[in-house]
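so i finally got all the pieces together for this one. its two components total, 798 residues if u count the protein bits. some of the lines might not be protein, just check the labels. i wanna see the whole assembly predicted at once instead of chain by chain like last time, that was a mess tbh
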Amino acid sequence: MVPGPGIARTQLPPGFTCSGINSGVRRYRPDLGIIISTEPAVVAGVYTKNECKAVPIRYCQRLLPAQNIKAIVTNSGQANAATGALGEENNLKMAEAVAKKLNCQTSQVLTASTGVIGIQLEIDKIVGGVEELVERQGHTAEPFALAILTTDLVPKTVSTEVELSGGRVHITGICKGSGMIHPNMGTMLGYFLTDAELSIPEAVHLLTEATDNSFNMVSVDGETSTNDCAFLMANGVSGVRLANLSDEKKFLKALEDVAQVLAKSIARDGEGATKLIEVQILNAPTLPMARQAARGLVMSSLVKTAIHGCDPNWGRILARLGADQVSKDCLSKMELRIQDILVYQKETPLSVDLSGLRNQLKSDTVLIQVDFNSGDFNATAWGCDMSKKYVEINAEYTT
Amino acid sequence: MVPGPGIARTQLPPGFTCSGINSGVRRYRPDLGIIISTEPAVVAGVYTKNECKAVPIRYCQRLLPAQNIKAIVTNSGQANAATGALGEENNLKMAEAVAKKLNCQTSQVLTASTGVIGIQLEIDKIVGGVEELVERQGHTAEPFALAILTTDLVPKTVSTEVELSGGRVHITGICKGSGMIHPNMGTMLGYFLTDAELSIPEAVHLLTEATDNSFNMVSVDGETSTNDCAFLMANGVSGVRLANLSDEKKFLKALEDVAQVLAKSIARDGEGATKLIEVQILNAPTLPMARQAARGLVMSSLVKTAIHGCDPNWGRILARLGADQVSKDCLSKMELRIQDILVYQKETPLSVDLSGLRNQLKSDTVLIQVDFNSGDFNATAWGCDMSKKYVEINAEYTT
């Protein structure tokens, strides 16, 4: 696996191109991106569970899953959410402009948006940019990855290869996300591209599985966006299918690995973040409880601020687990480790070298392990610390 | 109604005294307080729903409701939560020391604690302070109100009188709370004292009703404490009972008013807060939905930071309502007003004077009104903006 960015460039799988430009909506940064498949591709999508869904989300939900998709166009800066009938029109214009340029049906073009909620798209600028956008297409992921960013500091791309029984296939993942991150389905925007040949049911299943253990386990601030979505786009250019169960497992593992690298990169790039927090819940009686406990800890403001201050105030971890209705039985059997140091066991605080632990917390990755000793289910969640910068960014986002 | 503090002092109802001292646990600030009733009092309690309950919470749950309570002793700085068997022993020692000094049974003395979770009480200092504590008792609320503070900036007291058919009775409310505020039952620590003569069922009913519409509708940071509790203590010294339904309504109204003044003072004094946020949900189809929507908005980091920055980014309000599973029907009929200015209606953003709205947001109280036009249920919640100071306070609390 080769994480981008940096000097290295992330190559797209064969049969995909992408591009990103400034259409004039944002002042300096690229704000319009596209992913194009040379062949009509099988695409599955997962979407935010927010009841207030953005226009492009509802548009993609109507079209997907499908097997004839040519492109996904994405704009940043304006979310096209809470925009009424005019928002619907503008979304369609964006897809139509791309379809015209690519010489395909409008229904073969997906859309996604990210940015400020409640303002209309500057659709003339966007439509006016489509020609240049399509003409600039190339074989690396970065131009697109840059065009979809909002408060992110770094583009997020990763690629890998999998050796299946019929030959080698490629997977590239691209995503954006930094604030309003508490996905409940897809997430922010995520795109998985592969040259493997997948059926629609396979694509749906693989995408759902991979996001449940990655994007759905990240939280920056407990806020679920109106625009979260993730797509798996398979163009079949390799001619290699998932011929057996072993192939399917290998492919899912690779897809999950890609998704987890992206999920962690979102957490690490969380608004104002200085550290990645990884929470492992071990031996819980049920999977939902393990997941809820893990997500609860990474979204706790008090845990996030304590870790920001390298403050070994682990009582806040206990308080949060109790607030999230972890059962008394689990709490009584739990062992709590921070950076591999056992601090609480059998309902009793242990005598710990606090200044040593404080030093351990200075690391740029902090590991919290909670072992409930009450079952067989594990879950991992990722988040980030909370700094004054988070407040600064979010007190000044639209203005 | 006379809100304290300041120059004015809050008088306790007849038959109550209180006191607060420094026992040596905290360096400079008072850290031990007591409320004493001259007559055995009827007491009801409500408690945190956190599964990880502090020792004094479990102790009071065993004793209450009761009709023979003489005192509530409270220490600050150490929460006596997650402290195992030694924590139980220490809690009992605290109650015993007070009972001995007051010449009553240990079971007539309630306890409460607030402070850092996971460290043992410095019980010798606390027990050593009890004699001075009891001897200093007086008739104003402030010494106690000061002794129970942690990160609060101001003591929180209020008193009122109610004219019932049998005569006049008094109610005094005292509370503390500034962070880890997202009560799910009582809240932080709250004490309501009255010289009315109440039965146990009356006390339980009145306290539950009053806290549901006040303390349970405040959120500073979405974190539910291990130590939240509120008590209603009625010593009957006035000889005035709730003789009829009208008396009961009047008394409940007065108690709710007291509780709401305290709830708002907690929100306004939230860690790092510069503004009070009041959210009114109007005409919702159910009461639980109205309450959840109201609480969801006051706990949203993105709404709180936007208001801190006087940023009229109301899309975040919509996003949060959708994330909290407000129904599509409600969202389609909703009207959103900020500082009485209509910004969104019929699924469409309105053209609004944004710089005027930005000026309105500079007020130290911000009102958000969401009218769902879908039913008869209303709810109000209180919270505060999120500033860099919140992060500072919580990155450095134990150290």
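Chain A has two domains: 2-268, 276-395.
The two ends of chain A are 39 Å apart (CA to CA).
anyway lmk what u think
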